[in-house]
């Protein structure tokens, strides 16, 4: 395999990743990691304060809870702009 074909395949991979839609939901653990490694307890506290919404994909109380990506990104963007 030549260097040029390797570079082309890497560029194609990058383009494919860029065209993939971003996530709509994160688990509490993923949201915690994206918010700088805070604890899941902090994520729950942010939910209770109304700063993060929670989403269940079924009506079961034991269903897994997800956090909308836009809420996580809004908190990240807000923290980046904080003094």
Low-confidence stretches: 16-20
Please give the CATH architecture. Answer: Orthogonal Bundle
Helix content class: 55-70%
First-to-last CA distance:
51 Å
Q: Taking strands numbered 1, 2, ... along the chain, how are they ordered across the largest sheet?
A: 1-3-2
Q: By helix and strand content, what is the structural category?
A: mainly alpha
CATH topology grouping: Multidrug-efflux Transporter Regulator, Chain: A, Domain 2
The largest sheet, given as strand count, sense and whether it forms a barrel, is: 3 strands, antiparallel
Shape: globular
The helix count comes to 4
- The level 1 CATH classification is Mainly Alpha
Question: How big is the Rg?
Answer: 18 Å
Q: How many structural units, i.e. domains?
A: 1
Mean pLDDT: 81
SSE order: HEHHEEH
Number of strands: 3
Give the percentage of residues in beta strands.
Answer: 5-15%
